[in-house]
Structure formats: C-alpha cells, structure tokens
Amino acid sequence: MENTDTQQMWEERYAESERIWSGRPNARLVEVVSTLPPGAALELGCGEGGDTVWLAQRGWRVLAVDIANNALQRAAAALEAAGGDLAERVEFQRHDLTVTFPCGRFDLVTAHFLHSPTEWDRDAVMRRAAAAVAPGGRLLIVDHAEAPPWAEHIHDHVFATAEEVVAGMDLDPAEWERERVERAGREGLGPDGQLGTLVDNVILLRRR
Ligand SMILES: C[S@@+](CC[C@H](N)C(=O)[O-])C[C@H]1O[C@@H](n2cnc3c(N)ncnc32)[C@H](O)[C@@H]1O
C-alpha cells in the first residue's frame, strides 16, 4: 500500500516555499551525461525539474517521476518556461517508488539525491532502477556522501558509502561494468550564497 505519510511529508516540504532547489541541472549529471548520445531516460525523484529540463534540451526523451504532485507541477512549469518543443519529449508520472515503478527499459536511469527522511527500502528501489536499464545503457546514482558544511541538523547522520549503495543492489558483476564508484568533492554554494565543498557519492554503472 502507498505510504501517504511520505507523500504528505514531501508535499508539505515543497509547499514551504516557492522554490527549494536551484533550478539548475545537477553538476554530476552535466559532468557524466554531456558526452552521452541522447536516448530514453528515466529520472527518479525529479523534484522541481532542473535535470529534466536539461536532459530534454540535450535531446533526451525523459520519463520524470516523483512522489509529490507539488514537485511534478513545478517541474512541468519549469519545462514550459524553458520553451520550444521540450514538453513533447517529457512525460511526468507520480509514483511512490517503494510501491509502484514506471514500466520500460531506458538508456539512462538517473537518481540524484533520492534521499528521504522517512523509513524506506531504498536498496529495493535502486534494484528496480538497475532492472530498468536497457542493455548498453547506464545507471547514474548521485548521493550525498556527507552533510553540506552549512547543514545545521544532520551532522550526526551516517551516510552510505558508494560501495554500500552498489552492494545493496546485489548486481551480477558479469552483467555490469563499474565506470565510476567513488566519493568526489566539488565546490558548491549554500542557501545564503556561501562557498563550500560538497561531497557526493557518484555511481555510474553500464549494463553490458
Ligand atoms: C532531495 S530531493 C532531490 C530532487 C532532485 N532530484 C534534485 O536533485 O534536485 C528528493 C526527491 O525525491 C522524491 N522522493 C522521495 N521519496 C520518494 C519516493 N518514495 N518515490 C518517489 N519520489 C520520492 C521527493 O519528493 C523529492 O522531490
């Protein structure tokens, strides 16, 4: 059964302000996907659509999924604001990924910061994400490896390592090539414009 508490939590999180995320595509997405030929992409936890818009602008057909209607509406508005015929290349679907998962096989399955403060079996969701990758396609997972320097409340949180995320998916090594499984820092801006180092787990796997 769908966990309406989780949906409600995210709906309320989005309702707190007009915009939560930067609206820009995630740095790791740009870093990894800029060199890939466009195809069919599945985006898990699309939030306000910064990555969705960028992928569509690069020629990808995108199925963008989130648990929160508020997020999906903002992502659709961002797509419309970006103009052109981008909307023709994007479909939005609402799923609680712990309960239902989009159908199909994709050249790219991407999940950026698909974290949630609620209790959930994220490994199971990531296993389904891997299963949705077409032969020759890629799975890109980008997680926080540690709290941002400006975070006030979550410094005692234990973050999974990139290796733990990969182990949780229990993939057949004969079927998957590890292109990147690492912890990587980058410069980023905090909510008040402060500069700091953000540390990500970057997991890029290619299905043979
Ligand atoms: C930290 S935000 C990241 C949003 C976006 N990927 C980005 O990088 O800006 C996590 C997103 O995952 C979504 N989410 C959390 N749990 C989910 C679930 N069980 N099913 C689908 N989406 C979920 C949230 O609604 C939220 O939009």
Brief write-up:
It comes from Mycolicibacterium chitae. With 208 residues, the protein is of the alpha/beta class.
Widest beta sheet: strand line-up: 3-2-1-4-5-7-6
Per CATH, the architecture is: 3-Layer(aba) Sandwich
CATH topology: Rossmann fold
Distance between the termini: 34 Å
Task: Provide the helix percentage.
Answer: 25-40%
Query: What's the overall geometry?
Result: globular
User: What Rg do the Cα atoms give?
Assistant: 16 Å
In terms of structural class, how would the helical and strand content be classed? alpha/beta
What percent strand? Answer: 25-35%
Mean residue pLDDT:
95
Instruction: Tally the helices.
Output: 6
What's the order of the H and E elements?
A: HHEHEHEEHEHEE
Ligand list = S-adenosylmethionine
The CATH top-level class label:
Alpha Beta
What's the structural domain tally?
1
The largest pleated sheet is described as: 7 strands, mixed
Q: Say which CATH homologous superfamily is assigned.
A: Vaccinia Virus protein VP39
Low-confidence stretches: none
Protein name: Methylase involved in ubiquinone/menaquinone biosynthesis
Organism: Mycolicibacterium chitae
Domain Methyltransferase: 42-137
GO biological process, one term: methylation
Key terms:
208 residues, alpha/beta, Rossmann fold, 7-stranded mixed β-sheet, 6 helices, binds S-adenosylmethionine, Methylase involved in ubiquinone/menaquinone biosynthesis, methyltransferase activity
Structure in words:
The chain has helices spanning 4-15, 27-33, 50-57, 69-82, 122-131, 162-169, and strands at residues 40-44, 61-66, 90-94, 106-112, 133-144, 176-189, 195-207. The protein has 208 residues and is α/β, with parallel strands linked by helices. The chain is globular and about 45 Å long. It has a single domain (4-18, 25-173, 189-196), classed as Rossmann fold. The longest helix has 14 residues, at 69-82. Helix 4 links the parallel strand 2 (61-66) and strand 3 (90-94). It binds S-adenosylmethionine (SAM). S-adenosylmethionine binds next to helix 1. This is Methylase involved in ubiquinone/menaquinone biosynthesis.
